[in-house]
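Thread title: Can someone regenerate the structure for this chain?

I was given the following input by a collaborator and told the matching structure tokens would be attached. They weren't. Posting the sequence so someone can regenerate them.
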Amino acid sequence: MDVNFSAIEVEVYSRTIDRELVLEALHSENFNISEMQPSKRVSSNRPTNTIWYGPDVPPGAVELVTEILIEKGLDIVEVKPFSIADGKEAKIQVGSQEYVK
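Best answer:
Regenerated them for you:
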């Protein structure tokens, strides 16, 4: 399947710890990237570990974003659909979430 990656918006909420790595990796694939301000409630030292996506995002795009970030050495713990996709149907978000081990 041929996917037009420039039509898919990728919002990057990554923290200072790995933000440049994430942006560089995704820019290499011509995604439409928006740098977003991460929540101040979340530690700036928490690395990128989660990818969320909307129902209109082709599975191949989600897989590619995941593969790119894993290849760059990021520990992606979870890839999941938005719990509420209202307004985010064709978006992918990259950020971090706290996971209890």
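Strands lie at 9-12, 32-35, 50-53, 78-81, 91-95.
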